[in-house]
Amino acid sequence: MIEIIAIVRPNKTSATKQALIKTGYPGYTCIRAVGRGKKTVEVILADGKKLKTKLVSKRLFLIVVEDVAKEEVVQAIIDANWSGNEGDGKIFVTKLTDSYNVHLE
What we know:
Blueprint: E1 2-8, H1 13-23, E2 29-35, E3 41-44, E4 50-53, E5 56-65, H2 70-81, E6 89-95
Antiparallel strand pairs: 1-5, 1-6, 2-5, 3-4
Helix pairs in contact: 1-2
């Protein structure tokens, strides 16, 4: 099994969800995250003021899929989030060795 960790812009959350549904992998965990890359980012506030910041709001998707679905799911995430600008996102892929369900019997 593979875990795909996708960090995307908040305004692309809905597009990412729809892309996962279309690929047949609607199960995911989505977390609000704040982070930074290598560069300081200029953010334009609602009142038009510009603010330089190192922390940027993002969404973190955690998706677990079978090995054979890795390329399809990663490509769907890229297609849903690519705008050609810096900060479109980052995707990490890791191999899972085990998983367990926690439940009452």
